[in-house]
Amino acid sequence: MNSLAQELNSLLEGSVAGALLSDLGRRIYFPRGIVAQSAEAKKHAKRANATIGMALREGKPVYLQAIRSLIPDLDPEEIFPYAPTQGVEKLREAWKKEIIQKNPDIGNTPFSLPLVVPGLTAGISTLADLFAGLADTLVIPDLFWDNYPLIFETRREAAIRTFPFYSQRGGFNSDGLQAALRAAAGKKKVILLLNFPNNPTGYSLTKNEADAVVSIIGDLAASGTRCLVITDDAYFGLFYEPDIYPQSLFARLCGLHENVLAAKVDGSTKEDLTWGFRTAFISLGAKGLAQEQYDALTSKLMGAVRSTVSNSSVLAQNLILRAIANPARQKEKDEAGALLRQRYLKVKSIVADRASKAIQPFPFNSGYFMSFQLKRGDAEKLRTALLMDEGVGTIAVNEKCLRVAFSQLDLDKLEEVFEVIYRTAERVL
Questions:
Q1: pTM here?
Q2: Above 90 in pLDDT, residue 186?
């Protein structure tokens, strides 16, 4: 094993983070190679810096005016250079402040400076590299984003254990979560991934449900099981009902227990409507972790990033940083949120007034989506009929679940689209 990896492992020895590392997580490190040496030279090379593979003229990036002219409001240094592996420092600091502001339950609980990754997928995949492997189990609800198995099962060879997302009462199935965690905890290690607002269901925890989930995780940790809990907060903030817990569970988990390592993956993607910017963040928190241990974990995350995607777009990061400083940003975000909530309320009204022998809506209260549960037949058959016969695109999540992204549909289109869905379901199922 590389001596730098051994050094980081020694710093993490005895902590929940050290105990949770996968084989790859133990081996990974950030090399003192080109990137590290270039960063050092940037600070100290007063005479000349000949370290990095970039073309400079008088210390500034050489660029094409055909590109520069498209982005007149940013300096060339904000557009063209490589970004640091861990991300633009000012953006990391600004995003951490935003996390604290949007999640007051964090209080003064320490957590890491967010590390920038190119999108939510890269964030979850990087965490999987560090913490998941052949001997590990990931617990997720049975209605999930289809990238999770590809990341954890196919790439990292971890086992996946699911539990029914909904209880018989119609809310989140806390009892099912508890049973799945206990069943997976035989090796004294478990990975839990929770996504709220959920893709595909568009459901978020109520305040009481959030209390129950935190209590279940706390009890498991108190019994001696080490838990990595990943909160996939891709759709954070899109909450449409007053009884929803309006924060990330990370706020309650990052200081919960010495046996819980909380990992928050979030980003500008949906929060700032910058889907193609591919800019997301990983934040880590655990009760009792010292700053040097957060630094060690960050070095391992940087090693995982360096060895896969190298770094994230400096242009996208600086655009987001500029937007954060813009007083108009929050007002515009509120307007976009109100637009989506208006569509949500319309869909809620439509499905409340319809009865069908073929489909029924799963409970939903947030996010971009709602889903139908099929009472009979196959979701792929319904999806195909909607697409080929009616020209309406939907997603067959599994055999009994059809997802509809109302986020894509203008308000005046909703009645028509849902009428087609109900009519086609009755016809083909």
A1: 0.95
A2: no
